[in-house]
Design brief:
The chain is an alpha+beta fold and about 200 residues long. The protein folds into two domains: about 90 residues, Pseudouridine synthase I, catalytic domain, N-terminal subdomain (Alpha-Beta Plaits, 2-Layer Sandwich), CATH 3.30.70.580; about 90 residues, Alpha-L RNA-binding motif (Alpha-Beta Plaits, 2-Layer Sandwich). The longest helix is centred in the C-terminal third of the chain and has 11 residues.
Length: about 200
């Protein structure tokens, strides 16, 4: 479980010509890979594993694991705009699946370094947004489609669809990682019908 900071690619090798960092600068464990990805300009929870079936189980859209994000947008989000996001919006020719969206009046995040782009005449607001799919830059495209450009994006949780609380960033700061605890390992193993000792 890794709290990916801003400016880091979700890969372990540098991207030729890129200004972004990579996971090898933070994770000293060989042969683990990110489950899904976060863009370099996004922050938040990455699960890393060497278990191919687990990686597929958590990342394939057909399993519809809820992923929750805190999103700072340009403008004050209205109920009508949030309802559009909940119902689905058309991006890249396809309608998004229904989402969970609510205002986030007291976000727990310190200002980002480097700071976000702001315009003096336009306020910003925060949303908590949960999706069951992960198309390319989906949240940024969704919020832009309803007139709320994304300024900052933080993935805070990944649900396992087992009735228990999701895996979350709790206890981690940007750039920190930790192994899953025994209870989390058991839950991940149950997703695959395997003993917990098989999960790493």
């Amino acid at each position: 479980m890794f709290y990916k900071p801003y400016g880091v690619l979700s890969r372990f090798t540098p991207e030729p010509g890129s200004r972004w960092g990579n996971l090898a600068e933070f994770i000293p464990i060989p042969e683990v890979y990110a489950v899904g990805r976060l863009d370099a300009d996004s922050e938040g929870l990455l699960v890393l594993t060497s278990h191919g079936r687990l990686q597929a189980r958590l990342s394939q859209p057909r399993w519809r694991h809820w992923r929750t994000y805190h999103v700072q947008v340009e403008g004050l989000a209205t109920e009508a705009q949030m309802e559009q996001l909940r119902q689905g919006v058309l991006i890249q020719g396809r309608l998004t699946l229904e989402a969970r969206v609510k205002p986030l009046p007291n976000p727990p995040w310190a200002p980002r370094d480097p700071p976000i782009r702001t315009r003096l005449a336009i306020p910003t607001s925060w949303l908590e947004l949960s999706l069951q799919e992960g198309r390319n830059r989906q949240i940024r495209r969704m919020t832009a489609a309803v007139g709320l450009p994304t300024l900052r994006l933080i993935r805070v949780a990944i649900g396992l669809n087992d009735g228990a609380p999701p895996l979350s960033l709790s206890g981690l700061s940007g750039g920190q990682w930790r192994p899953v605890n025994p209870a989390e390992r058991d839950r991940l193993a149950r997703l695959l019908g395997q003993p917990s000792t098989s999960i790493n």
